[in-house]
Amino acid sequence: MPIASLTHAALSAAAVGILLWILRRSGPRAAGLAAAVPINSLPALFWLSTEHGAAFAASAVLGALGGTALTVVVGASFAGITEARRAATPALRPSTAGATARAPGGRDATGVSMVAAGAMSLLVSELSRHSIPQLCGLVAAVPVVGLFATWTGWRRGGAVAMLQVVRGYLDGMAAKAAFLAALGAAWTLGAGGWGWPLGLAAATLVLWARRPRRDRAAARPPALAAASVGIGSVR
Fold first, then answer.
1. In terms of Cα–Cα distance, which of 32, 16, 34, 25 is closest to 114?
2. Which of 125, 142, 220, 221 would you call most buried, defined as having the most Cβ atoms within 10 angstroms of its Cβ?
3. How many Cβ atoms from other residues are within 10 Å of residue 27's Cβ?
4. Secondary structure element (H or E) that encloses residue 129, with its range
5. What is residue 88's predicted lDDT score, i.e. its pLDDT?
6. What residues contact residue 71 under an 8 Å CB cut-off, 6+ apart?
7. In angstroms, rounded to a whole number, what is the distance separating the alpha carbons of residues 153 and 72?
8. Residue-wise over 161-197: b if at least 16 C-beta within 10 A, else e?
9. Which pLDDT does position 182 carry in this prediction?
10. pTM score, two decimals?
C-alpha cells in the first residue's frame, strides 16, 4: 500500500480524534456543527485534486454533494420522527439531570471513530485508482463522525440532547453543501487553488445565515431590535 495513502489515513484519524475531543467538551448544538465538518471528504478531495487533477476532483465533488444531500434528507426525517415520538411518548422525555453527564465508553467511541475515519481515507484513496470519481466523493461523504456524535448525544442527554446535536449537524451540513458547491464550481471554471477560500466563504455565509434566532436578534443594532419588538407586539 502506498506510503501516501497511509499518511492520509493517519492524518484523517488524528483530525477525528481532535474533533471528538472537542465534541465531548461542548454543547449539543456545537457538537453537531463540529461533527458536520467534512473531516473525511475535505482531505479526500484535497488529495484527489493533488494526485489526479482538478477535473477529477470536481467530478468527485458531485458524488460528495449527492451523499451530503442524502444525509440531510435522512437526518431531517430522523429528527422529525424522533420529535414526534418524543412528544407523544412521555418515556422519551428524559430529565435534564443527566444532560451533561459524560457518556460511558467515550474513549472507546473515539477510538472506533478514528479507526473508521482512517479506513475511509484508505478506501477513498484506493477507489480513486480503480473507480469513477463520483463514487470516491460519495464514499468520502459517508457521515462517520455525525453518526458517532448523534449516538454520543443520546448517551449524554437522551432524545433532547440528541435532537440538538442533529439540528446543529443539519445546519453544518447545509454549510458543507455550500462549501462543496462553491469548490466544485470553482474547479470546473478553472479557478484551481482559489476554490478552497471560495468554498470556505460560502460555508461561512450559510452558517451566519442559519444562526439561532436569539443570536441573530442579539447581533442587531439596538434601534432595529426595538423596532422589531414593537412591530411584533402589534395585534
1. 16
2. 125
3. 15
4. helix 106-130
5. 75
6. 141, 143, 146, 173
7. 18
8. bbbbbbbbbbbbbbbbbbbbbbbbbbbeeebeeebbe
9. 93
10. 0.69
**Residue 106 has what pLDDT?**
46
The list of the chain residues with pLDDT below 70 reads: 1-5, 8, 19-20, 23-24, 39-40, 90-110, 112-113, 212-235
Distance CA(224)–CA(229), nearest Å, equals 9
Sign of the CA dihedral 176, 177, 183, 184?
positive
Task: Please state the separation of Cα 128 from the chain's center in Å.
Answer: 23
Report the greatest alpha carbon distance in the chain: 70
CA distances from 19 to 15, 34, 40 (A): 6, 7, 12
Give 114's contacts (C-beta < 8 A, 6+ positions apart): 13, 14, 16, 17, 20
Spatial distance between the Cα atoms of 133 and 48, rounded to a whole number of angstroms: 9
Distance CA 130, CA 54 (A): 18
For the chain, first and last CA: distance in Å? 70
pLDDT value of residue 218: 52
* Per-residue model confidence (pLDDT) at position 113: 67
- At 130, list the grid cell: 480503480
Q: Where are the domains of the chain?
A: 3-233
Q: Which residues contact 37 (CB under 8 A, 6 or more apart)?
A: 19, 145, 172, 176
Could you give the C-alpha distances from 44 to 27, 49, 105, 130, 178, in angstroms and in order? Answer: 28, 9, 29, 15, 17
